[in-house]
Write a structure and sequence with these properties.
membrane; transmembrane; DMT family transporter; globular; mainly alpha; about 80% helix; transmembrane helix; YdcZ
Amino acid sequence: MGAGLLTTVALVLAVLAGTLIPMQAGLNGRLAQAMGTPIWAAGVSFLIGTLILLPLAALLRSPGQALADLSGVPWWAWFGGLMGACFVSITVFAAPIVGATAMIAAVIAGQLIAALALDHFGLAGYTANPIGWRDLAGVVLLVAGVVVLRFGRG
């Protein structure tokens, strides 16, 4: 697969992944309603995901080799699971309160703010890429969009 095609496939899959976030938050919000707490709903969601991912991962690579390679992982890389748990729990809580559109706009604004910092300082394995005024303007406009989406409805 050529680099251009690989990039296109990756972007299409990223858009597809983006479509799943508001659906996941809504479905997990319904779980939270039934279970009485977003934390239980997030836990059940992660359990289902784990039960699906582990057999698939074992098909793609031997568990022994994958576990052996963990010794080279930097300490900070282990926080990805914690961040995923926080993300799912927060969206389960927020989605029914603010709605899918405002929640996703706020999530995207937060993602861009974090991405700018990660790129600018070269953190979490990213290459340093200084931010410019256009980057900042884009994030400011997106944050303004979140405000309009949430509070601009009459």
